[in-house]
Amino acid sequence: MYMRVGNRQGGFEMEPFNFSDVQLNLDISPSTGDEATWRITQGWLKECTETHTSCNPGGITSYIPSRLVELDDSAAEPTFRVVEKHQVDPQSQYLTLSHCWGVESMKDRLTLTHSTVEALSKEQPCSMLPKTYRDALIVAGRLGIRYVWIDSLCISQDSVEDWRAESSSMQEVYGNAFMSITALGADDDGGGLFFSRDPDMVKPTVFKFGVDGPENPQPYRFSLEKGWAWRLSFNNEPLTKRGWVIQERLLPRRVLHFGSKQVFWECYEGARCETHPKTVDCIDLPQTDKTKEVDKPNHAWKDLIGASHRFECKDDISQLFVDWYSLLHLYSNCNLTVAGDKLVALSGIAKDMKQRLSTLGCQDTKYLAGIWSQRLPQALIWNVRTAGRRVEVYRAPSWSWAAIDGDINIHDWSLATMGNMEILASVISAQTTTAKSGDETGEVTGGTITLGGIMLTANLGPYVKTELHIFFETTRDVAEFRHPKNGTLRTRIQGGGNTTKDNFIKSSVRFDTMEDVSTQVACLPITKTESTFNGITTWHVAGLAVKEVEDGNYRRVGHFSMEAKREEEIRSIFEEALRGYFNII
Q1: Distances in Å between the alpha carbon of 584 and those of 214, 351, 366, 557, 581?
Q2: In the chain, pLDDT over 90 holds for what percent of residues?
Q3: C-beta neighbour count of 201 within 10 angstroms
Q4: Local confidence band at 551 (pLDDT 50, 70, 90 cut-offs)
Q5: What's the pLDDT band for 569 if we cut at 50, 70, 90?
Q6: Out of the domains of life, which is the source (predicted)?
Q7: Is the pLDDT of residue 501 over 80?
Q8: Which of 62, 173, 334, 465 pairs with 346 at a CA distance of 20 to 30 A?
Q9: DSSP codes, 318-343
Q10: Helix 347-359 to helix 316-332 angle, to the nearest 10 degrees?
Q11: CB 463 within 8 A of CB 440
Q12: How confident is the model at residue 281 (pLDDT cuts 50, 70, 90)?
């Protein structure tokens, strides 16, 4: 089926539609807060609590956050108050709320501060709360749960000490919650959880076509209604762009998302939405009406609706790192109101990751500003897909992806089983300092890594807009390599590549930001990989592009790569390079 609207047109593959198909739901109600929607969510919750072993580890947790919002809905006018941990029965269940704060100034916002703590500790009418908070308490009341954790009311907003202490406990706060609820479709605290909607604009669209003639019309639907169409609403919701929400979605055992168009569900054993009440991961087999669920590998966390594709690994440790890199890619594209929260907003996941590594036998794991010691030095060769941005306030050393705001891509090819890899640099030492002593996953105030290896100076050519680099304004081809100290020419690479019938070599530097772009950098190779495609073997070198700063230290400015048809060509370039130890800050 082809459609034309104005000057735009598009084609859609249509599939015969079976009204008995249990994978799709056409019965959408007018509101995400009505009884019809609530019955669907109750079904998801019942299935999860009664049949999902992964979501119900056994035993009743005795963890209670430092503060909670307590609901009393026994009277006609529901009330709330903020209570301390010692005021709550240790066996009590609680919910957590994820939401966008919005642009309202702090002085106009209801928050926990030194001046409001006394009033908030006393019962207040729920009507004084922002709509999102009121709706969250309505959900708690429906579930028969008295307590909700809300960040702005449970963390003192004018105490740096309290914020650091509480932000470092997010793994426990979210991980021990009975369920997390998200204001997925709200731009701010006034948006609420429940939205009115036009059911015809949400449910799968069914057309009747007379394919064999007008006298026998048959129902058809858009082929991608299964397993894909729901993303159009989910991925464009305001909360998905918020950096803090990544750990707020991954850490709880189950999450109920209230979107502007429909309600979504995530737990350790599956994902659902109102249009796909059984699973969002369903596809049609070729030339058949039968459906099946997509096979899922054993991922570390829940599937994370909307996450980028993750390849599968044979061992649990490698799979854990693959999942970590996948969520980093998603996280790097999210926004943070406070730029300095880059590592703090991921602290809960990092703590959980460390526990998982320890369980798998990695006892000496170090977390270094978003990078794990087990994956050094390979994890240093990340790049930025398009020009990134550096923040004014220090938050990570230059070698960490957390130093940059941008679309981060980590090239840890040793996990991708692409070919044979040789490590060209050794880690002599690596350390970071944090604002809170003993919390290596929290706010970082400094860091240095010392690599033993080889280094060459690269003189770079001008930016040429080629088919390969059309999207990479920060990419520059290497024109020649020289020895960093004596300037001896190692090789010239005309136009970014030396090419003959039997040989080619090309090299480039992709800078982290436009401000980093220059005509000369030092290149520090880290990995060399052999790969074969269509019977052709090539050698790939990846590493860091750095610049020397004060006291002989270096600062990362980008990602360096080289490709050659013969390993001898690479070896000849590096055989007389500068060898030594290089401190990168």
Answers
A1: 72, 25, 18, 11, 10
A2: 66
A3: 10
A4: confident
A5: confident
A6: Eukaryota
A7: no
A8: 62
A9: HHHHHHHHHHHHHHHTSB-SSGGGTT
A10: 170
A11: no
A12: confident
* pTM, 2 dp: 0.86
pLDDT band at 326 (very low <50, low <70, confident <90, very high): confident
Any residues with CB less than 8 A from the CB of 201 and at least 6 apart, and which?
Answer: 261
Distance of CA 195 to the CA centre of its chain: 26
Residues with Cβ < 8 Å from 516, sequence gap 6 or more? Answer: 474, 557, 558
Amino acid residing at 446:
G
Residues ≥6 apart with Cβ < 8 Å to 407 = 329, 332, 333, 384, 385, 386, 388
**CB distance 152 to 96 below 8 Å:** no
Output the six-digit token pair for 394. Answer: 């220090």
The C-alpha atoms of residue 55 and residue 50 are separated, in whole angstroms, by: 10
At 42-68, the pLDDT tens digits run: 999 999 999 999 898 876 678 999 999
Domain parsing of the chain, residue ranges: 35-196+233-293, 316-584
CB-side exposure of 112: number of CA atoms within 13 Å?
Answer: 24
Question: Going by C-beta distance under 8 Å and a sequence separation of 6 or more, which residues neighbour residue 16?
Answer: 218, 219, 220, 289
- Structure-token pair, residue 139: 């959900």
Stated length of the chain: 585
CA atoms of 375 and 214, how far apart (whole Å): 63
Quote the CA–CA distance of 450 and 430 in Å, as a whole number.
6
If we measure between CA atoms, which residue out of 95, 28, 23 comes closest to residue 64? 95
- Alpha-helix runs per DSSP H in 333-390: 347-359
Residue with tokens 């001898």: 568
Of the candidates 54, 94, 65, 251, the residue with the CA atom closest to the CA atom of residue 154? 65
Q: What is the DSSP letter of 308?
A: P
Cβ pair 187, 102 in contact under 8 A: yes
| Confidence label for 306 from pLDDT (cuts 50, 70 and 90) | low
As beta bridge partners, residue 505 has 498, 564
